[in-house]
Structures are given as C-alpha cells and as structure tokens.
Amino acid sequence: MPAAASHQQSFDPVQILHDRFAAAIAAAFPEHAGGAADPVITPSKNPKFGDFQANGAMPLGKLIGRSPREAAAAIVKSVDLGDIAEPLSDASIAGPGFINITLKNTALARLLDRLDSTALGLDPVHGAEKQTIVVDLCGVNLAKQMHVGHLRAVIIGDAVARVFERMGHKVIRQNHVGDWGLNIAMVTAKLIELEKRGEKIDKLDLDRLEKLYKAAQKECSADERGLAMVEKYNLGPKALAEIGTQVHEAREHLAGAKNTLVKLQAHDPATVAVWKRIADLTMDACLATCKRLGADVTAEHSAGESSYAEELAPLVADLVARGITQESEGALVIRVEGFAEPCIIRKSDGGFLYATTDLAGIRRRVQRFGADRVVYCVDARQGLHFRLVFAAAHRAGFDVAPGHASPSSLEHAAFGMVLGQDGKPYKTRSGENVKLSDLLDEAVERAAAAVAGKNPDLSAEERTRIADAVGIAAIKYVDLSNDRIKDYVFDFDRMLAFEGNTGPYLLYALVRIRSIFRKAGSGMSALRADAPAAITIATPEEKTLALTLLRYPGVVRGVAASLEPHRLCQYLFDLAGAFSSFFTNCPVLQAHDEATKRSRLRLCAITERVLADGLSMLGIPTLDRM
Ligand code: ARG
Q1: Is 374 helix (H, G, I), strand (E, B) or coil?
Q2: Ligand 1, atom 9: closest residue by C-alpha
Q3: Cα(75) to centroid(ligand 1), Å
Q4: At what angle do helices 206-220 and 269-292 cross, to 10 degrees?
Q5: Distance in Å, CA 178 to ligand 1 centroid
Q6: CA 514/CA 544 separation, integer angstroms
Q7: pTM assigned to the model
Q8: Distance from the CA of 159 to the center of ligand 1, in angstroms?
C-alpha cells in the first residue's frame, strides 16, 4: 500500500490503519523501522474477526527472530488507534499473530461527513505541490483519417489531463501532429501536380486526400531491390526495362518531394498554401472527432512537428558543439547508457527525424513551459523510441527547467492495441483500418436500439440525445477501463451492455440514484448544506458503501501517480456495486424512521457526487434519465 502523502489528510480507514500500525511497529522496534515493517492490513474473511486484520507480525517476527505472537503483542501495546477503531488488547491477537480490528461506525460516519464537501476529499493542490504538467495526446498525422488506433491516444490522454486538472495542477495539452517531413512533402507535391493538371484541390475531402497520400507514398518508393536483382542475375532487357522504368519514375517523384520539402522549409508561399490546405482539412476532421468524443483537444493544443522545424538545425548544432553527439555511418547519433541502440538525430542525407523533433519538444516543454512532468499518451510500440529520446534529452540537459536543481519527469503512458475478435489489430472486413467516425456512428446506432428497448416513452429527441451519450460513453469507458498497457478486444455487444463493468451500467447507476432524489421531494432537506442530516452507519451494506466512498481521494491520487485511468473505472464499478447492495438491502425512502431515511438519503447523495465526479474525470458526461 502506498503511503499517503503526509500533507493530504487521509479519509480511507484502511490507509489510516496502515499509517497507525506502521508508526506502532516503528515505535516498538525502532531498529527495524525501515521499509521492511509493512503492517499488511487486509479485510477480514470472517466478520467475527472484525473488519480488518493487521498481518504484519508474521514477517516481522521472522525478521527480528521472535515469535509472531510476541511481535503482535508489542504492536498491540504501542498502537494508537485513536477513535478510528475499537481499542486492542491481547484478546485481539488470533492464531499465530493476526491482529483483529473492528472499526468504529461513528468514525466512518465522521470521515464521510468530512468527505462530503465540494472537493470530495481532493482539495486543490497548492504551493510546492502544484505542478505544471504537459500531456501529449492525440498525435494524428496529416492527410490521414483518424482510425481506431487514435482512440486511445485521445481518450486516455484526455482522462489523464482531466485527473491532473481536477487535482488543481496546471495542465498543458499538446497535440504533436505529424505534419512535417518527407511523407508530408510527398502528398503536398502530389497535390501541386494535380493542381497543375487543372484539378480543383479546394473540393478535396479527407477520404480522397488519404488516397492521394497513399498513392504518393507508392509513387515515391522505388523497387531498388528488384532492380539490383535484375542486374545481378542479368534477367534480360525486358525485365530491366520494366523495373528500370519504375525505379526511374519513383526516383524522380522522390526528388520532386525532396524539392517540395526544401520549398516548404524555405516558406515558399505557393507550396505552403497547398500544405496548409492539407493541414486544415485533416485538423478540421480531427478536432470534430475529438469534440464528438467529448475530449478537450482543440486547435490551441496543436503543436505539430512543423512548429519545431526552425529549431532543429540550431538544436543539433548546439549538441554537436557540446560534444554530446557522435558520427555513426554518416548519421549523427546520441549514445545513451544502458542502450545498445543509439538515438539517431540526423540522417546521413542531412534530414532530421521523429526523435529530433521530440528532443526539441522536451526542451520546449520543460524549459519554456516549465513542465515538472511531461506525460506521453502514445502507443506502447513506441516504447523504445521514448526511452531513447528521454535518455538523450537527459544527456543534453533538456529535461531540467530553468532554476530547477533536478530534472523533470518524462513519462510514457504507453497503451496497448485495440484488437478484433480474431485477436489481430481491429480492421474492417476488407482489411482496412477502421475509421474512428464510423466506429462512433455504429456505437451510437447500437445504443439507440438498446435505449429504445429500455424506455419507449421518451421523445425522439430525447432518445437521440441519450443514445449519443450512451454510445460515446460505451466506447470511451471500454477504452479506459482496460488495463492501459494491455491490448483489448473490441466488442460492441459487451461494451454496450447495461450489466457489468461498462459505461452504460455506470450511467444507469447514476440515473437510478438521481431518480431517488426526484421521488424524495421534501426529504431533500436531508441534504441541505447548512444543516445536513446526521450520518449513521449501522448495516453491513452501509459500512461497505462508506468504506468504498472513503477510498475515493486515494484512488484518484493513485491514478495521477500511475497514469492508469482503469483504476478509477474499477473503483467506480465497485462503488456502483456497493451502492446497489446498499439500495437493495437498506430501504431509503421507506426507511422505518425519519433519521435513518435522512442518513441514507445523504449516503445516496455522496455516492451520486462521487460517481459524477469520477465520470467527469473520465470525460464521460452523465444523464438524468435514460
Ligand atoms: N504522430 C505520431 C504517430 O502517429 C504520434 C505522436 C506522439 N507524440 C510524440 N510527441 N511523439 O506515431
């Protein structure tokens, strides 16, 4: 269990027990106060042993060469549980040295009462705790449709950014658009050529642009190997003519593209105008999709590779002057400790690479924006790239902000792939990449069918609105709830189910709580801010619900530290489950006395707020009815 940051007050009784027992072990065995003394707090399997057990006496006994029971007795003597749990005695020690702990229901009620503020236990960080965090997200490439592979870079990036924002950090979103380099010059050249032939490029749509992009790539790739083969085996004039022509034409196209790149770099107005059309067309579609996804990625977040173009030559010159680079087979590289591969920053033809731009990105983000953390939400397959670039940036000193003594933290929040039912990357039946917009259309369409079946009384308008929300929630939630680093299998039926760990289930759980409030009428006075109802925790379901609610701030901090939104999803699912058993077993509006009813209504209200707050961090808008 991670120790709670000392300045943040803890709400989670498990964390509080952990801290109190760790302190007791340190006091009883000062010579072993180091990390080895974990109190091992776990929920009791059997309620007759209380709510939790501290099982740390077993490993501790071994460590100090005494019997676990003796160690347990010493811990029991020195632990101060304050008002969180019933006082311990020798009778609390069971078996070989388990310490049984029973929480005080009044303590749970008091903690919940404190949690029930606008901050929900997450007061905005301030002072030295407040960080500037750059989140690199989306990262589309020009002249290409967004496809399913971009889903995670947008959704996970947006969620991570929202968590930081919720905690009060300063967040700078950066969409590192692939909008520069030879590939982009190829399609630019292609468009210029079409225009020369009289075609109107202002009528172009992204579909056609992507086809042109692929055609341009193909035209520029010469079959050099084929040619070498024909020459080596002397395959005759016919073969030579065929392949020779291809190679000749491709080389010419490539030379044209290189020339276009030079013109782009020299800001030639006509060339730049065509490039700008490509950029606008792509970004309009990309930003529209982000908007539809409810992800906060807008034009102001775009900082494409082109924005670094002017910086690369001086950056490399500076590295050369400082002796950080090395020549290797004509290329310029940075060698980094612990890696067999070098980080290549200039090709033998003088061109710069993806890594060069990322180095410039780190320098800008840390040294100009003052980032304490830079978080890259990018495909796991780019892992080696980022490890090399981070290490190279460190060698270059680019990761140290002005006036800072230590380097900022560079982190790759790597994610796995979206797979089809066949376990291979998710593709259309004809083997194409699945367009993100098509995927969203289908999710919304299917959601509409599910919603119509559930609630036929809704107006058509309302149904459309709900279907939209449910479809998008389903897609986003499935992407966020899967372990970030792992691949997952895309399955419409599962993600749209109203049962299980899905977006629709959580939206529905919230709708159910909100409908309780609509029925409560005058009972709502239980939630008045100036005179809220007293909370009483009496039944096992109330206790479980309280314990789950109290975990919330710790879970969110854990997400910020680990960059793993799936922990928040799992938590919200647990919470919805705890609420559901509470609601099934503990009548709220029908409670037998007024005080119980008021207390339970307040539990409903806290649950509602935590669920809504959690979903908002996942970027999932909630509904009042569905
Ligand atoms: N455009 C890149 C790609 O499609 C992703 C950019 C990720 N961000 C970065 N700073 N490298 O692979």
Answers
A1: strand
A2: 176
A3: 53
A4: 130
A5: 7
A6: 21
A7: 0.94
A8: 18
- Residue predicted with more confidence, 452 or 469: 469
* Number of C-beta neighbours around residue 612 at 10 A: 17
Give the mean model confidence (pLDDT) for residues 250-278.
96
Q: Write the residue with the smallest CA distance to atom 5 of ligand 1.
A: 139
Please choose, from the candidates 419, 408, 591, 424, the residue with its C-alpha nearest in 3D space to the C-alpha of residue 516.
591
Instruction: At 397, list the tokens.
Output: 């000193």
Q: Are 414 and 378 in contact (CB under 8 A)?
A: yes
How many beta carbons lie within 10 A of that of residue 310, not counting itself? Answer: 12
Atom number of ligand 1 nearest to Cα 354: 11
Nearest-CA residue for atom 3 of ligand 1: 139
Mutational pocket test of ligand 1: of 134, 138, 141, 369, the residue with most ligand atoms within 8 Å of the beta carbon: 141
Q: Is the pLDDT of residue 9 over 80?
A: no
- Measured from the Cβ of residue 287, the count of other Cβ atoms closer than 10 Å reads 19
- Dihedral, CA of residue 182, residue 183, residue 184 and residue 190, to nearest 10: 100
Tokens read off for 346: 């200039």
Sheet architecture: strand order including 343-346: 326-328, 331-334, 343-346
Q: Is the CB of 361 under 6 A from ligand 1?
A: yes
Cα 340 to Cα 567: distance, rounded to the nearest angstrom: 35
DSSP 136-168: E----BTTS--BHHHHHHHHHHHHHHHHHHHHT
Single-letter amino acid code for the residue at 406: S
Instruction: Tell me the C-alpha to C-alpha distance, in Å, between residue 44 and each of 39, 48, 334.
Output: 14, 9, 54
Q: What domains sit in the chain, N to C, each tagged with a CATH number?
A: 13-103 (3.30.1360.70), 129-178+296-412 (3.40.50.620), 182-292 (no CATH), 436-495 (no CATH), 503-617 (1.10.730.10)
Q: What is the pLDDT of residues 161-182, one digit of tens each?
A: 999 999 999 999 999 999 999 9
Mean pLDDT of the chain: 94
Q: What is the secondary structure of 166-224 as a DSSP string?
A: HHT-EEEEEB--B--SHHHHHHHHHHHHHHHTT--GGG--HHHHHHHHHHHHHHH---H
Q: List C-alpha distances in Å: 114 to 107, 202, 596.
A: 11, 60, 19
The residue length of the chain stands at: 626
Spatial contact of 569 and 507, defined as CB atoms under 8 Å apart: no
52-54 and 41-43: which strand pairing?
A: antiparallel
CA of 471 to the centre of ligand 1 (A): 27
* All residues at 6 or more sequence positions from 88 whose CB lies less than 8 Å from its CB, including other chains: 76, 79, 81, 99, 101
For the CA of 178, the closest atom of ligand 1 is: 1
Helix or strand or coil: residue 376? strand
Question: Residue range 375-380: average pLDDT?
Answer: 98
3-state secondary structure (DSSP) of residue 338: coil
Q: Is the CB–ligand 1 distance for residue 365 below 6 Å?
A: no
Residue 5's pLDDT is what? Answer: 45
- For Cα atoms 469, 473, 475, give the angle at the middle one, nearest 5 degrees: 125
